[in-house]
Amino acid sequence: MLANTAHNWRAGVGGFAVVLLFAILGPSLMAQTGGRGALRGTATDPTGAPVAFAMVTTTSVDSGQTLPAATGTDGTYKFSLPPGNYRLRFESAGYKTVQIPAVKINGLWTVVQNCQLEADAQTPSGTTAEPAQKPAPGPPNNPAAPSLEDLGITPAQAKGDAKAQALLDRRTHMLKVHQRLGLITIGPFAATLITSALAGGKQTSSTDRDLHAILGAVTTDLYFTTAYFAIRAPKIPGTQTRGPIRLHKTLAWIHAPGMVLTPILGEMAFAQKSRGEKVHGIATLHGPVAIVTGAAFGLAVASVSFKF
Amino acid sequence: MLGKLLIGFLLLSPPALAGPDSQWVLDQSALTYHVSHPLHQSEGVSHAARGKGVCHEGQCDFLIAVPVKSFDSGDSNRDIHMLQVTRGAQFPIVTVRTRVPESASTSATISLDLEIQFAGQTAQYKQVPFQRVVQGNETRINGTIPAKLSDFKIDPPSLLTMPVKNDFPIRVDLSWHPM
To answer: How far is it, in rounded angstroms, from Cα A39 to Cα B23?
Structure first.
């Protein structure tokens, strides 16, 4: 009886001690994790050697949000995640992809999920997804090594945006076409200006005028196609125009109306010449407008090509 | 019983006892990349880096992170193009990790092994020399990382069909102070 009482007393005190320790350490642990759970582990090959730079991706079963990380040189990885259920994926060149369908993260304890990667005969072993690299720093065995979250960078801030990247890719593609067409346009534009010397005056032949007109038409077509790719290139929200591109865009307010006016005035001058008349009236502005347009266009190209 | 409780407490509280020995925080920063093109040179600078160092058992682990889009070359067109070629929307943060023996923090010159994650790739740079200057409570680190576009699988952007050089050295100027 006495022994039983003593046993019950010890068990009661022991239980109380555990509860007390939880009460003391619980808030501390919660404070350390900030209500987030830790997931860590090591990726190894079939021999047990660590696999460096393997891509580890967590996907929240609840929200679908993915978070990538790479293993260090010692094969370890670490995530700090909100509590919930996650899928885990390990990928590395030369190894088969491993998927772990369910990992439960709570806000209190570190979950350890190791992964042994199996060699993949499809891809040559020894290749890695990484660039040619120099030796890596030492393994991160400091348990308190800082993370992005320690720097105040949330997973949402670190997460990539594939749509935004696609927008940037499309913008660059269109502006590259714009740039190339702009450079190509310089050729017929210069030729048109040069042949203008043969197209004007009483002595010029109809052939010279035709050549000038054809070159002008080619220039106009190329110019507006060039402009189309700049105008239709996606705008990046929140971008303030700064630097030489401002001059480049400002000059468009000169050469774009010029490229509309020049062919109209040219057509009028062409008709007057074809009737055997001297070019007169507003058509006399064809040459000066073309020169201003050409100068503005050339300066626009130069403004983004050279540093002044 | 009290002794058992004390032992139990001590056994269950190593995380509290094994905390970091000291910590550093990044105060001010200037990270400047340099790009060479046959027609001109350009630089982009960011002052938006955040960093922290944690020392434990004689080793200090440092992490520096900077948003790719925070680099400013003074030309919005170039900055957006840089963001595109470096896949900055997909991989918005550049991180630099390094480990330094705590004893090295007294040297005027330190050589660091750096691990840089950028554009979805990880590259290591071995023994990059940095100058260390202590001014009062502040420790200033200066140096240049010999980065190459190919290290991060970045296609060299081109202007007028001429590509930029593969080298894009990054000048680093960081001011740290102990927490």
So the answer is: 23
B50: chain A residues, CB-CB within 8 Å: 151-153
CB-based contact A150 B1, cutoff 8 Å: no
* CA of B129 vs chain A CAs: smallest distance (Å): 14
pTM for the whole structure: 0.64
Local structure of B166: helix, strand or coil: coil
Q: How far apart are CA B55 and CA B176, in angstroms?
A: 14
Residue A255 · residue A297 · CB < 8 Å = yes
Q: Does residue A223 have a pLDDT over 90?
A: yes
Please provide the DSSP assignment of chain A as one string: -HHHHHHHHHHHHHHHHHHHHHHHHHHHHHHHHTT-EEEEEEEE-TTS-B-TT-EEEEEETTT--EEEEE--TTSEEEEEE-SEEEEEEEE-TTB--EEEEEEEE-SSSEEE--EEPPB-TTS-TT--SSPS-PPPPPP---TT---GGGGT--HHHHS--HHHHHHHHHHHHHHHHHHHHHHHHHHHHHHHHHHHHHHSSTT--HHHHHHHHHHHHHHHHHHHHHHHHHHHSPPPTTPPP-THHHHHHHHHHHHHHHHHHHHHHHHHHHHHHHTTPPP-GGGGGHHHHHHHHHHHHHHHHHHTTS--
Give the CB-side neighbour count of residue B173, counting CA atoms within 13 A. Answer: 8
Q: How far is A242 from chain B (nearest CA, A)?
A: 5
CA-nearest of A103, A93, A265, A102 to A196 is A265
pLDDT band for position B105 (cuts 50, 70, 90): low
Residues in A closer than 8 angstroms to B90, CB to CB, are: 160-162, 164-165
Average pLDDT, chain A: 78
> H helices of B66-176, where?
76-85
Sign, CA dihedral B36-B170-B145-A69, equals negative
Give the integer Cα–Cα distance in Å for B141 and B114.
Answer: 14
Asked if the C-beta of B144 comes within 8 angstroms of chain A's C-beta atoms, the answer is no
For A15, name the nearest residue in chain B, comparing CA atoms only.
B5
Give chain B positions within 8 Å (CB) of A161: 89-90, 92
- Chain A residues in contact with B86 by the CB 8 A cut-off are none
Structure tokens at B48: 């938006």
Work out the pLDDT band at B76, boundaries 50, 70, 90: very high
